[in-house]
Amino acid sequence: MKLRRRQRERLSLGLQYLVFIAIIAAVLIAADWDRLADAFFRVDIIKSMFPTIITVALRNTILYTLGAFAFGLVFGTILALMRLSRVAPYRWVATAYIELFRGLPALLVLFLVGYGIPIAFPEREIPGGVFGSIAIGLGLTAAAYMAETIRAGIQAVPKGQMEAARTLGMSHFTAMRTIVVPQAFRIVIPPLTNELILLTKDSSLAYVLGVTAQTIEITKFGRDMLNDRVNATPLLVAGLAYLVITLPLSQVVRRLELRYAKAR
Amino acid sequence: MRFPSVVRQAGLVVAVTALALTAGCAKKDDSEVQASGVKLVSAGKLTVCTHLPYPPFQSKDASGKVTGFDVEIMDLVAKELGVEQTIIDTPFEGIKSGQDLNTGKCDAAAAGMTITEERRKVIDFSDPYFDATQAMLVKTGKTYKSLDDLKGKKLGVQAATTGRDYAKKYEAEKGLKLVEFEDLAALQQAVANGQVEAAINDLPVWTEYLKKNPGGFEVAAEFDTGEQYGFPVKKDANPELLKKINEVLAKAKQDGTYDTIYEKWIGKRPSA
């Protein structure tokens, strides 16, 4: 059977679609839908999760994320400036910190903050309880990543900007503060938003600190409900709750990246 | 026109692929390994799920080997089947929800697990093998004697346990502030460094803890909840294994093996 080139291409494409559809069909047919629905989609359980999943769990997830992000951003900016400093010890300290905290799992850092600090400083509490602990714990890790991002952003600002500012008589510090850093932040908004998305999910680690009914976040809420109802539906709802936060953020990143690409 | 025949050919390819896939996804019930007429998820091993650490029922000893009361009882079952016991450490909620058993991760679980009606809906339990009492641990010098004394105070519990459910029942009535920890180790840490005022867990667990950390802590209250432990097996799937476990339990209680293991791990048996 001899085919012309265009026909061959069409045939190959058609086959690929068909195989793709066949795989999906096979999976759909092989799955046990009744049991899946019973395990993951019980409407009565979904109903019982509202409004707590929004008023407590989602709210706390957002709070923890923002706390960690704010802490990480401030600390990360300081670290980035230290790494670019002309003073050598600043550079050493910042580099050592970044290497250390980029290499440690967030879970471990959070555990050290939650259990180590109370032992080191007895009878003292981290301000803000779980919120404070998670903001610091996750923020310490996030700062290491953000520092590198911000440093790259600062270095991406054309040298001429600094030179021009210095020529106008500005001090190095003033030029950094008013000319270079603001431009750098415009550049790093998309990667920082990605960091925000990562932190949203990492906030689920709050469970290691021990949580109460008031400080519970989405994942732990889902797992608790799973335990109480002995059914996996709460996990599905918890997953959707995360998407409520992360999907719009992803959209923001995409928009910003597009806008930035156009501006160039 | 040649195209339709090509499409037909493509259809054949797809059909074969789909068939192969379906076959590949088929359940492996038939290929399960047998030992003395009992179905096992992997050959030559009794695979048992648990959540570590939970001394004296299951925890790692100095050499890193998992041992304890539950472990030794399950060893008897494995011996009866002529296989070795392999222990898988997994979150308690996976055991409690029956998912670890349903997905074939393990044949049975041994996790100091209380038999409850809720849990019975998703797993089969062996005969009871242990009477458990809940108890409240506090640091020495604290004056709490009951849940009433903890009004407005932080009380630590372990996630997915009956101790947590018990405390939850009185949360509103007694004005407790429940703080939930993932595992026993974190719960003990929290009491030790004052993150919570007291913690509830099974009495033998605290007894073991006091043995290892003398002086700093005490059991302030006991709550007789009439709980009994059972070994979970996959729901309606492995009656042979369930029968075997029950047989081994009955035999061990009769010939004194159970008492020996009990005294080794828990202490003197209460005269019932």
UniProtKB/TrEMBL annotation, chain A:
<dbReference type="InterPro" id="IPR000515">
    <property type="entry name" value="MetI-like"/>
</dbReference>
<dbReference type="GO" id="GO:0043190">
    <property type="term" value="C:ATP-binding cassette (ABC) transporter complex"/>
</dbReference>
<feature type="domain" description="ABC transmembrane type-1">
    <location>
        <begin position="58"/>
        <end position="253"/>
    </location>
</feature>
<dbReference type="InterPro" id="IPR035906">
    <property type="entry name" value="MetI-like_sf"/>
</dbReference>
<dbReference type="GO" id="GO:0006865">
    <property type="term" value="P:amino acid transport"/>
</dbReference>
<comment type="similarity">
    <text>Belongs to the binding-protein-dependent transport system permease family.</text>
</comment>
<keyword id="KW-1003">Cell membrane</keyword>
<dbReference type="GO" id="GO:0022857">
    <property type="term" value="F:transmembrane transporter activity"/>
</dbReference>
<keyword id="KW-1133">Transmembrane helix</keyword>
<protein>
    <submittedName>
        <fullName>Polar amino acid transport system permease protein</fullName>
    </submittedName>
</protein>
<dbReference type="InterPro" id="IPR010065">
    <property type="entry name" value="AA_ABC_transptr_permease_3TM"/>
</dbReference>
<feature type="transmembrane region" description="Helical">
    <location>
        <begin position="62"/>
        <end position="82"/>
    </location>
</feature>
<feature type="transmembrane region" description="Helical">
    <location>
        <begin position="232"/>
        <end position="253"/>
    </location>
</feature>
<dbReference type="Pfam" id="PF00528">
    <property type="entry name" value="BPD_transp_1"/>
</dbReference>
<feature type="transmembrane region" description="Helical">
    <location>
        <begin position="127"/>
        <end position="147"/>
    </location>
</feature>
<feature type="transmembrane region" description="Helical">
    <location>
        <begin position="12"/>
        <end position="31"/>
    </location>
</feature>
<keyword id="KW-0812">Transmembrane</keyword>
<keyword id="KW-0472">Membrane</keyword>
<keyword id="KW-0029">Amino-acid transport</keyword>
<keyword id="KW-0813">Transport</keyword>
<dbReference type="InterPro" id="IPR043429">
    <property type="entry name" value="ArtM/GltK/GlnP/TcyL/YhdX-like"/>
</dbReference>
<feature type="transmembrane region" description="Helical">
    <location>
        <begin position="103"/>
        <end position="121"/>
    </location>
</feature>
UniProtKB/TrEMBL annotation, chain B:
<dbReference type="GO" id="GO:0030313">
    <property type="term" value="C:cell envelope"/>
</dbReference>
<dbReference type="InterPro" id="IPR001320">
    <property type="entry name" value="Iontro_rcpt_C"/>
</dbReference>
<feature type="signal peptide">
    <location>
        <begin position="1"/>
        <end position="20"/>
    </location>
</feature>
<feature type="domain" description="Ionotropic glutamate receptor C-terminal">
    <location>
        <begin position="45"/>
        <end position="268"/>
    </location>
</feature>
<dbReference type="Pfam" id="PF00497">
    <property type="entry name" value="SBP_bac_3"/>
</dbReference>
<dbReference type="GO" id="GO:0016020">
    <property type="term" value="C:membrane"/>
</dbReference>
<feature type="domain" description="Solute-binding protein family 3/N-terminal">
    <location>
        <begin position="45"/>
        <end position="269"/>
    </location>
</feature>
<keyword id="KW-0732">Signal</keyword>
<comment type="similarity">
    <text>Belongs to the bacterial solute-binding protein 3 family.</text>
</comment>
<dbReference type="GO" id="GO:0015276">
    <property type="term" value="F:ligand-gated monoatomic ion channel activity"/>
</dbReference>
<dbReference type="InterPro" id="IPR018313">
    <property type="entry name" value="SBP_3_CS"/>
</dbReference>
<dbReference type="InterPro" id="IPR001638">
    <property type="entry name" value="Solute-binding_3/MltF_N"/>
</dbReference>
<protein>
    <submittedName>
        <fullName>Polar amino acid transport system substrate-binding protein</fullName>
    </submittedName>
</protein>
